[in-house]
Design brief:
Layout lengths: L1 H10 L22 H5 L28 E8 L5 E12 L3 E18 L5 E19 L5 E14 L2 E14 L6 E15 L11 E9 L5 E7 L16 E2 L5 E2 L5 H6 L2 E7 L5 E8 H6 L11 E8 L3 E11 L2 E11 L2
Antiparallel strand pairs: 1-2, 1-16, 2-3, 3-4, 4-5, 5-6, 6-7, 7-8, 8-9, 9-12, 10-11, 12-13, 13-14, 14-15, 15-16
Length: 336
């Protein structure tokens, strides 16, 4: 435990990494869980989904023993994201260990030299392997977890390797209607860079909570992400103001607008039933993909799940822009 605390303190300075497109390995913020995607894409409190520990290692528990999860995301511009996760309970003393693999394939590209002459095609991909473990503190309702991620990224003949750490702490009780968690994700460093200069990791601190209503089959989820950095806003070019002389004035982001961009919410209806429905809304995505005088529904997510005895199937639809949507499929299999 002392070693974990020392590692946490040594890497705490990296918490102020850049957000948006200013860091490397941003595929680590994609999920192959259709249920998580449908609930807004940022949920951290799913304790019965074997895909969740890839985002929050503190959610590893005995009920995930011998569960296998596979997911497929048909991302933007035919980019494909594949994921697999598995958990096994070694014994009552050691507890449960979790492993996951993520793979993002960007497809084929046409290469060219400085003269514009084609040199053939090349590929690009990102991949990660994570090993995670959690432990309940002093037989309480508080559980802590950590994961180690091995990362590889390849673009044509260039490649990069990196290591990242996740830490999470969660409070939950089967008799309590709410779950609360705090997660520090993607603290790390490149072992080898594409070039000589090493880049920032997409490190972020997230807070999540969920609440199950007593007399209604409805469960609410809320996540506040990137707590380590207040200003995560980017002005939308569609909202620029152009005067009569053609001068552009960028959109001004208000305090309240920027605060909302840290928030994503979700709701799940009939979560314990054979058939359930999920809805979500990501405020930041909605703001950044918004078009003037046109309703795009960007930021909205929706999905459903079908629960059988040993298998659970989930589908999620994500709205990004009028020109681009994404579909996520996931399958959870209980191998016991």
């Amino acid at each position: 435990m002392k070693r974990i605390i020392i590692i946490f303190l040594l890497t705490f300075n990296s918490l102020f990494a850049q957000v948006g497109g200013e860091s490397i390995y941003n595929f680590l913020n994609l999920t192959g869980s259709a249920r998580q995607t449908a609930l807004g894409g940022k949920v951290l409190t799913l304790i019965d989904d074997v895909n969740q520990p890839n985002w929050n290692p503190a959610t590893i528990n005995k009920r995930l023993n011998n569960n296998l999860g596979v997911g497929y995301l048909n991302y933007l511009s035919d980019v494909n994201f594949l994921s697999a996760a598995y958990a096994v309970n070694l014994n009552d003393k050691i507890g449960t260990v979790h492993a996951s693999i993520n793979y993002l394939n960007y497809g084929k590209f046409i290469g060219a030299n400085e003269l514009g002459e084609e040199t053939g095609s090349f590929g690009a991909y990102d991949a990660s392997l994570a090993i995670a473990y959690s432990h309940r503190l002093f037989n309480s309702n508080v559980q802590v977890g950590g994961s180690l991620k091995f990362i590889n990224s390849v673009i044509e003949n260039y490649s990069s390797f990196g290591l990242a750490l996740d830490f999470g702490i969660i409070y939950y009780n089967d008799s309590s209607p709410y779950i609360v968690t705090l997660v520090v994700r993607n603290m790390g460093s490149q072992i080898s860079a594409y070039d000589e200069e090493k880049e920032n990791f997409p490190t972020q601190v997230d807070f999540g909570v969920s609440y199950k209503l007593e007399n209604v089959p409805l469960k609410w989820y809320c996540t506040i992400d990137n707590i380590q950095k207040w200003n995560i806003s980017e002005s939308n070019p569609s909202n620029d103001i152009v005067d009569i002389d053609g001068n552009k004035t960028k959109e001004e982001i208000s305090f309240f607008d920027n605060a909302l961009r840290h928030v994503s919410i979700g709701a799940e209806l009939f979560s314990e039933s054979v058939f359930n429905i999920q809805l979500g809304y990501n405020f930041r995505r909605s703001k950044e993909f918004k078009l003037i005088d046109k309703r795009t529904f960007s930021g909205f997510t929706a999905g459903f799940g079908i629960r059988m005895k040993k298998i659970r199937f989930n589908y999620a639809f994500s709205k990004y822009h009028p020109a681009s949507n994404a579909s996520t499929f996931s399958l959870l299999i209980n191998l016991n």
